[in-house]
Write a structure and sequence with these properties.
Helix content is about 25%, strand content about 20%. By secondary structure, it is α/β, with parallel strands linked by helices. Strands 7-8-6-5-4-3-2-1-9-10 form a ten-stranded mixed beta sheet, with helices on one face. It has a two-stranded antiparallel sheet with strand order 11-12.
Amino acid sequence: MIPNPKNSCAGNFSDWLEVHLIDKCNAHCAWCVEKDGYHPKKSADWPRIATQIINHDATNVILLGGEPTLYKYLRPLIRALNNANKKVWITTNGSMLTPEFIENNLEGINISIHHYDLKLNEKITGVSLKNLSIGKLKNVRFNCNCISGAIDSVTKILNYIEFAKQSGADKVRFAELKNDTHKFVDLSKLFEYLNDDPFTEGCSHDVKINGFDVNFRQMCGLQTPLRPKPVNPQQIIKKVLYYDGLFYDGWQKEKKMEDKELIKILEDVASGKKSVAEAALLIDRKNQPTVIESTGGCQY
């Protein structure tokens, strides 16, 4: 199956480099796509990260995490990239934003806010935005995951758009949840111009609602089991720079022993097929993380 040409996995956004800058985060979002992500044990120093980015062909660089504002050398890194004529963007939960980010000449910033009621957003994410101030930041987009029980209706989406306007944002992205079936909100059921086949019909849609720029990001069957999985999908996997200073083919995740594998080993011990020592060795070996390529060719 061939993806929609506007999809990331079809090669769109080729002039963008995604950088997994840090694995630490001060939030506790239940659906976090990095929960099972690959976390290298070593970290490269920031000049090495800067060199890798500068030598890459992409003009646009988006710094991701974890929470990238927790990165100790964020400011000198941004300055170095600015001096190399890279356009630097950042995706943050907004809890650590200061006026210094304005001075560092970011090309744009995505702030993840998942409810227009900031007290509810704090309950969802664990971080406070009561002192949130966009100031003179340019190209500000609010990222909102649509979560059942939170932003899950047209009315609440309209309320969120008004909140974004009043806050000084330039755009909003409403996204479906990846892999989370319990809290999933199907955007195609809320807006007739969205589809239930994002892989072939397009997973990203730019529209205007009440004169405001809005993007809808839907999940295809490679990202959620709630939609049919594409058969033999054709994909272009982009390089992603990790904080160990290495490029990987797409975003990575760690796969550990599944519960059913552990149960089988314990059953073999109980039946006498394996000794305790053999089981311990097998569990230790199988429980080591194995880096595998994430499906879908995109992160979020």
